[in-house]
Amino acid sequence: MKKLFGIIALTSLMLLGACGEDEPAKEIVIVLKEHKFTPEVLEVQSGERFRLVIDNQDPTAEEFESHDMKREKIIKGNTKSVVFVGSLKAGEYKYFGEFNEDEAIGKIIAH
Amino acid sequence: MLLPFIITFREVLEIALIVSLMMAATKGLPGRNKWISIGFALGIIGSILIAIFIETISNFANGLGQELFNALIALVASILIGSTAVWVSTHGREMVLNMKDKGGRLVSGDLPAKTLSVIIALAVWREGAEIVLFSYGLLLSGLSLTTFLTGAIAGALAGSILGAGLYFGMVQINTKHIFKATSYLLLFIAAGMFALAAKYLVAAGYFGGLSDILWDTSHILSEQSFVGQVLHMFFGYSDSPMIIEVIYYVLFLTLSLLAISLIKRKKL
């Protein structure tokens, strides 16, 4: 039991150690309207850190999800939300809106 | 009708999995059902609140509040499930005795029974807010209430039936082994959840240096395939885990198994 609480302590330490991450990253905006992402294909530099701002202009909520980038985030209707992308290796990264999987699809290409 | 079915089915199944294993693991514990029901009620209220305030949560920490919040829920839930599993696996003998004569030697106070409520509430929270927001969106986009309800209720039912099946399957196990079986299963689930927390922390900008993919088995067994999803639910299987996810998973299992063996040795 105590060991398990040790994990909590360890994690909080790790968290503290990892703080101070706040150097400003570039912002890239993707608009979601009528369940479609614009731009559908986004090109970035590999290794670049950026904040993906998803501007949901639909009245309905969407879940931004990417298995390739390992991200998932709920974005309420008519709001913007940020997905932080550390640094991508060169390649293609697909993402989609989980609530509208057929229409809401896009990808990021890192060069 | 299909989409509400799929989404509610998937989310309810994840909740049902935890609930049924927790119920099997605490079979015979006085007051179990009460604490579980309280947890459910708290979970549903919490899900609605999270759905309402999701934007506020998101705006914390430079827009990464949702990731941190998800990480926190996964961390707390995995640690509570883990400690309950450790408790159950080291109190197996008392639990069996308790089941056999109903007066019971164990009182619920021995295991902080409130932990049960918290675990159930957290399990519902993890998936509940998503169901609420998704449903609200569908209704807003003009899907008829009947169509929606048919799909959602069928999905929730299917998820619950599978969960109930798991519960009745588990309690069929010889009383001697049931607590061992359920607690070890719970440990694996908790370890997977702990690793999930690492994934959310990476998404929130932490552990940048440890976020490289350790291996990629997506061509052998995709995480999105049926088997992949089942393995993911039970053992936290990932087809391309990051280094930190693997560290978290192994750390969690090692410490829990160590705790079990230490407690058992002390009892002898």
Condensed summary:
Chain A is 14% helix and 47% strand. With 111 residues, chain A is mostly beta strands. With 268 residues, chain B is mainly alpha-helical.
Descriptors for this entry?
heterodimer, A: 111 residues, mainly beta, 5-stranded mixed sheet, 1 helix, globular, B: 268 residues, mainly alpha, 9 helices, 79% helix
List low-confidence stretches of chain A.
none
In total, how many beta strands of chain B? 0
Strand order of the largest sheet of chain A: 3-9-8-5-6
Fraction of residues in β-strands of chain A: over 45%
Largest interface, by Cβ-Cβ below 8 angstroms: which chains and how many residues each? Answer: A-B, 39 and 48 residues
Structural class based on helices, strands and sheet pairing of chain A: mainly beta
Q: What is the share of helical residues of chain A?
A: 10-25%
What's the alpha carbon Rg of chain A, rounded to whole Å? 17 Å
- Average the pLDDT over all residues of chain B and give the rounded result: 87
pLDDT averaged over residues of chain A: 83
Structural class of chain B, please?
Answer: mainly alpha
Overall form of chain B: globular
| SSE string of chain A, helices as H and strands as E | HEEEEEEEEE
Tally of individual helices of chain B: 9
Give the arrangement of secondary structure elements:
The complex is a heterodimer of chains A (111) and B (268).
Chain A: H1 2-17, E1 26-33, E2 36-38, E3 41-44, E4 50-56, E5 62-66, E6 71-75, E7 79-85, E8 91-97, E9 105-110
Parallel strand pairs in A: 1-4, 3-9
Antiparallel strand pairs in A: 1-2, 4-7, 5-6, 5-8, 8-9
Chain B: H1 2-25, H2 32-63, H3 65-90, H4 92-100, H5 113-140, H6 145-172, H7 175-203, H8 226-235, H9 243-267
